[in-house]
Amino acid sequence: MDEDERLIVKSWANDHGIQLSAQQLELLDIYLNEVSEWNKHINLTGVSSRHRIIDELLLDSLMPASFLPQKGRLLDLGSGGGFPAIPLKICIPGLKFHLVESNRKKVNFLKHVIRITRLENIEVLWGRIEEERGQLRTDGYNAVTARAVADLPRTIAWCAPHLIAGGLFVNFQGNCFESAVQKSADILEKEHIALFKSIPYRLPGKKGSERNLLVFIKNN
Questions:
Q1: What is the pLDDT of residue 207?
Q2: Which DSSP helix (H) or strand (E) runs through 111?
Q3: Staple 159 to which of 37, 144, 181, 208, CB 3.0 to 4.6 Å?
Q4: Are 12 and 57 in contact (CB under 8 A)?
Q5: How many domains does the chain fold into?
Q6: What is the three-class DSSP state of 166?
Q7: Per residue in 148-184, pLDDT tens?
């Protein structure tokens, strides 16, 4: 990252309660470089400009870092090009990650990034969450994240069974999340999950467009 990029990322992180070390910024830079390079050959993100990748994807991915546990196990659904899982792993090295992705080329990319950044306790699983059984933790996860995967009711149905009691499910929504939560009422009740908090925020790359980080908790 050049100085302007570092200032943007570090300032954003500080404003949202996340302290990034020089080493973490360096790892994020390596990751961004790989995203930009691989984007030339496969559609990793749907966003090609490095500036937009930082403003719209990286900063978005950092949002949950201050709410997630520092230790335990995290499952990321539909990891794609690694947002939010790779930035979150860099921010929270003590948390063990499982990334589930169905696209083989994206799986190869994720494994490549993990290898060159030397991230530890992070594993990529090739498959679909609704079909994946053998490689996931049978004793559940402390947190599950999902960004831009499917509508909220389906995402909850896929993720909730993998949460331990007291575990957190984190989902990224736009400014009209209330209707999505209402449509999820039945599955929330069935899975004993409740909306714990919603955190509104705005991204520099999407001025005027409010986003909300939804944090759900599994009650039992």
A1: 65
A2: helix 104-117
A3: 144
A4: no
A5: 1
A6: strand
A7: 778 899 999 999 999 999 999 999 988 888 888 999 9
Q: How far apart are CA 116 and CA 6, in angstroms?
A: 20
Measure the CA–CA gap between 147 and 172, rounded to whole angstroms: 6
> Which residues constitute the domain of residue 173?
3-218
Sheet of 122-126: strands edge to edge? 122-126, 95-101, 72-77, 141-146, 163-173, 210-218, 193-202
CB 78, CB 55: distance < 8 Å: no
Question: Left if phi > 0, otherwise alpha if psi is -120 to 50, otherwise beta: which for 195?
Answer: beta
Q: What is the DSSP letter of 54?
A: I
What CATH number is given to the structural domain containing 56? 3.40.50.150
Which residue type occupies 139?
D
Query: Residue 217's beta-bridge partner residues?
Result: 168, 194
SS3 123: strand
At position 42, the amino acid (one-letter code) is I
Q: Quick check: pTM over 0.70?
A: yes
Partner residues linked to 144 by β-bridges: 75, 169
- Tokens encoding 30: 């390596």
pLDDT tens profile 119-135: 999 999 987 776 655 57
